[in-house]
Specification:
0% strand; mainly alpha; globular; Growth Hormone, Chain: A
């Protein structure tokens, strides 16, 4: 179904929609917090436990496997509803963040963060699913963009809190106490978070609850196969490219560019502003120029800024590149929106789990492992990340050759 076949209707966000976005923004904010935190603590984790960059890369790869394991939980959102899965994941993620404070080795840190990542990825996927199924079609891109923009505040918090955390008796562990803040909003989720009308309608039709193999057979059937394979590949590229741009950044600037904790504090407000504007921009662009062109623009910039950031020498060039990279993380919102719009309600959660988590998230696993392994032979993180920045450009032919435009598509009428 093309966007031209959809009637354009003047839509506005209601107070109920605004309340939903505000509630989920708190959940999404700590997804950005956790991703940034993983990068921020890396040099201090390595120093405390006396491990190399290659060993840290292996630890990040294992933690990223939690993103793949999240498939088991995300697909249950089609069976039991979006609301209970999100609440369960938010509670578990917060407890996992607290448990990280008690770790005494890289192995223990890795194990706990594996589980925390599983739950974090689940809550973020279901949050965007809730928005996509609730917001009117003509406003869906902007609503997801606003959600991501609100969540971008979380990505800046670890950089802002790093210096005072290191000065405290808890050190870097204090940042994981902050990461447990979603526990404070759990009562609000229980009271105010609604189930989506689309999911309730699907349940009222008494559609069969699919097994994992039945989901897979449906996704690789002739009707959905091309979308399934293309979205899986697109997610892999996005995960790989954003991981290359972000996960080793702190280690890179500390070890190879001589940055001190105070340098991150100066950068944090700029990164926050960049991320906020990037997420807002991706939402408005999706509704204005379409999903495919938006993904194209963001992936070109993601690749180019990664290569500039990791080859530059001066503080402000690196800082400006980093701010731009924070803005380009908005491409995740575009991918979540596409994934929701390309598949029917009975398979929407499953499709996200299969495409993004079971397949696409291997990009997060392989990126730190490959980048860590390339660091020594290539003479540093900078040269290795610069080379791997080319991967982002591979997304461009995918979206134009194999994906339809989904701007304005109604989810309520698609089953």
């Amino acid at each position: 179904m093309s966007e031209s076949s959809q009637p354009v209707v003047a839509e506005r966000l209601s107070l109920r929609h605004v309340g939903l976005i505000a509630l989920l923004a708190i959940v999404v904010m700590f997804e950005g917090f956790d991703i940034s935190l993983t990068s921020v603590v890396l040099p201090y984790l390595g120093e405390e436990y006396g491990v190399s960059s290659e060993r840290l890369g292996e630890a990040l790869a294992v933690i990223a496997l939690g993103s793949i394991a999240a498939w088991f939980l995300i697909r249950l959102a089609d069976r039991f509803g979006r609301r209970p899965i999100l609440i369960l994941a938010a509670a578990g993620f917060s407890l996992g963040s607290l448990a990280t404070v008690l770790t005494g080795s890289v192995a223990g840190y890795t194990a706990i963060q594996f589980v925390a990542r599983l739950l974090m990825v689940t809550q973020i996927a279901v949050a965007y699913l809730l928005i996509s199924e609730t917001i009117p079609p003509q406003l869906r891109g902007r609503a997801n963009g606003i959600l991501g923009a609100c969540g971008s505040f979380g990505a800046a918090l670890p950089f802002l809190a790093l210096e005072p955390a290191l000065a405290s008796s808890m050190g870097w562990r204090l940042l994981f106490v902050i990461g447990a803040a979603p526990l404070l909003v759990l009562p609000l989720l229980f009271i105010y978070l609604p189930e989506t009308p689309v999911w309730k309608q699907a349940r009222q039709r008494a559609e069969p609850r699919l097994t994992a193999m039945a989901e897979f057979r449906s996704l690789i059937g002739s009707e959905l196969r091309s979308r399934f394979l293309t979205m899986s590949a697109l997610w892999f590229i996005i995960n790989f490219a954003t991981s290359v741009s972000a996960l080793f950044f702190t280690l890179y600037v500390v070890q190879e560019r001589g940055w001190a904790p105070g340098d991150f504090a100066r950068l944090a407000p700029l990164g926050l502003g960049g991320a906020f504007l990037g997420y807002l921009a991706v939402g408005f662009l999706m509704d204005a120029i379409g999903r495919r062109l938006t993904v194209t623009l963001f992936m070109i910039m993601l690749g180019g800024l990664t290569q500039l950031c990791y080859s530059a020498q001066g503080y402000w060039v690196i800082a400006a590149s980093f701010v731009g990279l924070q803005a380009m993380l908005g491409v995740w919102v575009a991918a979540y929106t596409l994934n929701s719009e390309l598949f029917p309600t009975r398979l929407r959660g499953a499709a996200n789990g299969w495409c993004h988590n079971l397949i696409g998230r291997w990009g997060v696993v392989l990126a730190p492992w490959i980048l860590g392994a390339m660091t020594a032979p290539m003479g540093g993180i900078g040269p290795a990340a610069t080379l791997l920045g080319f991967v982002a450009y591979l997304a461009i032919p995918l979206v134009w050759i194999a994906l339809p435009e989904t701007r304005g598509r109604s989810l309520e009428t698609e089953g």
